Each structure stands twice: as C-alpha cells, then as structure tokens.
Amino acid sequence: MKRLTVPAIQRRKAGGITAEPLVMLTAYTARQAQLLDEHCDILLVGDSLAQVIYGLPSTLPVTLDMMIAHGAAVVRGSYHSLVVVDMPFGSYEESPQQAFASAARIMAETGCAAVKLEGGTAMAETIAFLTRRGIPVMAHIGLTPQAVNALGGYGARGRSQEEHAKIISDGKAVAEAGAFSVVVEGVIEPIAIALTQSLEIPVIGIGASAQCDGQVLVAEDMLGMFDRVPRFVKRYADMAALVSEAAATYAQEVRSRAFPGAEQTYQPK
Ligand code: KIV
Ligand code: NA
Q1: Which of 135, 122, 65 is nearest to 95 (CA)?
Q2: Tens digit of pLDDT for each residue in 207-219?
Q3: Integer-rounded Cα radius of gyration of the chain
Q4: Which residue, 89, 121, 133, 234, shows the most beta carbons closer than 10 Å to its own?
Q5: Is 30 inside any structural domain?
Q6: Does residue 260 lie within any of the structural domains?
Q7: Closest residue (by CA) to atom 8 of ligand 1?
C-alpha cells in the first residue's frame, strides 16, 4: 500500500462532497502508529502529547524538538496514513519566516508530509507563505488549545453571533490562503455544518458534527486511557481498566513468587 498524499486527501472532497469521511487519529509513538495506521487516512502527531504523554497542564510548553522526536517515530511506524505534525506554540506565530524555519525542520527531520497550525485569519499570511514554498498546511480553528489563556478555557465556541461569524471567516481565510484541510474543534454543530458545506477543502471535526468531511480524536481518549475526557469523546475501549488489571495480577504474582514460572526461566542444558 502506498502512503496517502496531500492531493489524494484533497481529491476526497472533489465536487464539494466527501463521500467517505476521512478517518484521523493522533499517534505519538511508533507502536501506536503501527496499530492505528491501517485503519486511518491521517495520523496526527498532536501537541496534545503534552497532556497525554508528558503530564503537562497545557500544550504551551511543547517544544519543536519534542514534536520532531515523536513525529519521526510515527513516520517510522506507519506506511499507509498521511502523517501530519502539529507546530508547537511559539514556533510559528511570530512571522511567516519563523514558521517556515520551524516547519522546514519538522518536515526534514521527521519525513512527515504536512504540518498543522492553530489560527484562522491571523495565520492566513503564514499559511500562504508555507504553502507557496512546498509545505502543505492543515489549519485548526474554533477551540484552539494553544490559545487557552486568551479563550479562558476549553469550552465550546461559537455560541455568540460574534464568535460564530469569526469562526466562519477563519475557515474561509485559511482555505483561501491555501490550507489543504482544516480541523474545526469544539464548535456548535451548525457552524461545523456551514463550514463543511461552504469550504472546498476537507473539514475535519472534533467536537463538531458527523456531517464534517472527517473526524479526529486523541487516540488515548477514545481508547479509554483517561477517566476524564471532554464531552465530545466517545470511548471505544477501556484500556485504563486493562492496564490496571494486568499490573495488579503481575504485582500479585511477583509477591507470591508465581512469576516467573517454568516457561519464563532458563535452565542449564
Ligand atoms: O493535538 C491534537 O491532538 C489535536 C487534535 C485533537 C486535533 O490538535
Ligand atoms: Na494540537
């Protein structure tokens, strides 16, 4: 199987409608990528690794080096999905030139095919700058976690007329700037539907609408690794319970000297 390309993802919305929704999940490690790859169209190396892997309180402390290390691991662990790597907070907002330098490092050092950055109208110039220089960009609008301090929290966006209009104009701006796709996160459903119907690029929803052109979730959230997850997460497994039960059984067998058994020990010939 050949790896999906940016144009192949874009062609999925040919004629303005995505017949088969795009499947996207996060992956941060090679093994996770191996397990998810065949089921997905896009693997996102999200800066959500801040909370999921590093126990950080927000995505703001994530560095370019962290994203590159995990991005390279995910590219090595996959061969089918398009790999998109998040640009971390502080690595792209200052200028299109700063964004290009950061994105070029991400692309060159990981082998990924595209980067993702947060922001709408304010980032349009940067998106155009990168796109014209051969770096495909996925935009991220609506609830943008890197702006948590400005937004005042992680609540759903778009309930006021003003916010509603801003999210719609952000979507138009990133599409016109050349983004190949856009993630819309945590918005009231009518906004997600309007964006999906009005933009020619695939609109990928998270906490958005089943009518979007695709869906993304943090893999650990949908695998049930966490007790507390946002309302928009559906848990498809209970990994936390599996891990906890396995550790409990192991601990009990170590303490009772039942492990290691005959099958796990070496004897002289
Ligand atoms: O970092 C991340 O995991 C993301 C997705 C949730 C869209 O940006
Ligand atoms: Na992110």
Answers
A1: 122
A2: 999 999 999 999 9
A3: 20
A4: 89
A5: yes
A6: no
A7: 46
ipTM for this model = 0.99
Q: Within a domain: residue 264?
A: no
The CATH number for 33's domain is 3.20.20.60
Number of compact structural domains in the chain: 1
Tokens 């009005």 -> residue: 198
Give the residue numbers of the binding site.
47-48, 86, 116, 118
Neighbours of 157 (CB within 10 A): 22
CB atoms within 5 A of ion ligand 2 belong to 46-47, 86
User: Ligand 1: residues within 6 Å at CB?
Assistant: 26, 44, 46-48, 86, 140, 183, 185, 206, 216, 218
Alpha carbon distance 8, 10 (integer Å): 5
User: What are 225-269's pLDDT values in tens digits?
Assistant: 999 999 999 999 999 999 999 999 999 999 999 999 999 999 999
- How far apart are alpha carbons 269 and 194 in whole angstroms? 72
Name the closest-CA residue to atom 5, ligand 1: 46
Strand (E) or helix (H) holding 165: helix 161-177
Does the pLDDT at position 1 exceed 70?
A: no
Considering the domain boundaries, does residue 266 fall inside one? no
Could you count the other beta carbons within 10 Å of the beta carbon of residue 24?
Answer: 27
Element (H, E) at 181: strand 181-185
Domain hosting 116: range is 6-238
Q: Report yes or no on whether pTM surpasses 0.90.
A: yes
Report the interhelical angle of 124-132 vs 161-177 (nearest 10°): 20
E strand residue ranges, 87-156: 114-118, 137-142
